[in-house]
């Protein structure tokens, strides 16, 4: 980088280089200071190769550094670990090394992307944003001091405990779009089928064989031709705000967390997670209300022939359209609908998804999805064990699939319900639900 005459400027200048996830980066001294421009510019008067105004770097490779809160820190980087700038940390060849050291009298402790730095008060520090590509967020965890690399992270301690760490690749900004084809690093067994690829669809669902752009949710069971995992199927729009992120793990603390969670929710399996896939819709808006923010996850976990899905919910904005949450399979041999789907309690501060659970962890719903028990047949159509429905257009006969077959009793809809035709049967639905 060669510098000639630099006119004085009143705004900040950054000089150096950066890489994806900032695994490697360098800032030329004087950046974001009053010494960046003018006749005394550090850039034009200084050098790292003894040639005034020239800075030279080898950029074909680099030495990996450390991790701090799962974020890569380059060897030699200096930062403060707390909001009061009392602990000054350095990435060394043996890991993160911290000592007690405060900012100098003229400096101010300022948050940056994932850490804190001491800046001279005369320097204008830009506000921290999360609009870079890919944007990455995670809930706070104790720092890991190591020399191995990890995906980038921005700490956000306000995220609920139900969410897994959020980092990885950002999908494109596109309404009703999908991620590219994602090749799974480990096969995922979904009710007897083994999948090696997946798509993260922007409208709140995952599909395996092809992308799926549908923004209009359908009630499960669909009795269709698609395997689908839908933590929050509705009309979402990440084209302007919010992020759709995905990442895979084959080692590290996320696998440890998944192993612990699954053994807690499904005891006596002696399960060990070998692979985890996390898809997150972070602060994504409803279409066309770009000011709304909704956060949720689908977490796929596998080990051996066992596989599981976690659906984790953060803040859910109020929506005026329907939401389907759960999963469905080809011909709906196996399906599940999270309570609150297609109701007014799906969204908002009282969302059943974010306040409820089937594993006693608020905002988390867990399912074993490698296999399932076959149920019954009604009019030559599979009905899952436990499903109930009405068999006639007047909803006078309520039927349930039991281990001994279809069992029907005389039962009418309640006063506030209406008899509605669905794919193969009839259901009593509340009259104020679309």
TrEMBL record:
It comes from the Eukaryota. One of its GO terms (biological process) is cell-matrix adhesion. Residues 231-372 form the NIDO domain. Pfam families: NIDO. InterPro entries: Alpha-tectorin (IPR052749), NIDO_dom (IPR003886). This is NIDO domain-containing protein. It comes from Oryzias melastigma. The lineage of its organism: Eukaryota, Metazoa, Chordata, Craniata, Vertebrata.
């Amino acid at each position: 980088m060669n510098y000639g005459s630099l006119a004085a400027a009143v705004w900040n200048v950054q000089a150096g280089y950066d890489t994806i996830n900032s695994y490697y980066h360098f800032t030329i001294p004087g950046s974001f200071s009053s010494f960046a421009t003018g006749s005394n510019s550090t850039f034009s008067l200084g050098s790292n190769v003894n040639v005034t105004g020239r800075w030279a770097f080898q950029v074909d490779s680099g030495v990996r550094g450390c991790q701090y809160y799962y974020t890569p820190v380059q060897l030699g980087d200096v930062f403060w670990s707390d909001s009061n700038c009392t602990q000054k940390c350095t990435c060394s060849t043996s890991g993160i090394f911290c000592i007690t050291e405060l900012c100098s009298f003229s400096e101010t402790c300022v948050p940056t992307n994932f850490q804190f730095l001491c800046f001279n008060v005369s320097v204008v520090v830009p506000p921290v944003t999360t609009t870079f590509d890919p944007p990455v967020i995670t809930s706070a965890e104790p720092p890991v001091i190591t020399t191995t690399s990890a995906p980038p992270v921005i700490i956000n301690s306000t995220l609920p405990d139900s969410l897994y760490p959020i980092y990885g690749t950002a999908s494109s900004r596109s309404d009703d779009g999908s991620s590219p084809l994602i090749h799974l690093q480990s096969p995922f067994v979904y009710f007897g089928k083994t999948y090696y690829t997946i798509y993260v669809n922007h409208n709140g669902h995952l599909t395996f064989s092809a992308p799926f752009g549908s923004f209009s949710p359908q009630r499960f069971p669909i009795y269709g031709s698609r395997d689908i995992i839908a933590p929050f199927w509705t009309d979402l729009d990440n084209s302007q705000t919010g992020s759709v992120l995905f990442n895979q793990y084959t080692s590290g603390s996320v696998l440890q967390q998944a192993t612990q969670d699954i053994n807690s929710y499904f005891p006596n399996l002696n399960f060990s997670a070998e692979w985890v896939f996390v898809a997150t819709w972070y602060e994504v808006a409803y279409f066309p209300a770009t000011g709304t923010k909704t956060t949720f996850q689908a977490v796929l976990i596998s080990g051996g022939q066992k596989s599981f899905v976690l659906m984790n919910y953060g803040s859910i904005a109020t929506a005026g359209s329907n939401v389907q949450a759960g999963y469905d399979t080809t011909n709906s041999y196996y399906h599940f609908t999270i309570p609150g789907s297609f109701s007014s309690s799906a969204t908002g501060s009282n969302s059943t998804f974010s306040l409820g659970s089937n594993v006693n962890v608020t905002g988390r719903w867990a399912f074993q999805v490698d296999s399932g028990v076959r149920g019954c047949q009604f009019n030559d159509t599979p009905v899952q064990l436990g499903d109930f429905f009405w068999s006639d257009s007047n909803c006078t006969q309520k039927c349930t699939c039991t281990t001994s077959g279809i069992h029907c009793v005389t039962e009418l809809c309640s006063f506030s319900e209406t008899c509605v035709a669905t794919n193969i049967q009839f259901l009593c639905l509340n009259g104020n639900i679309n």
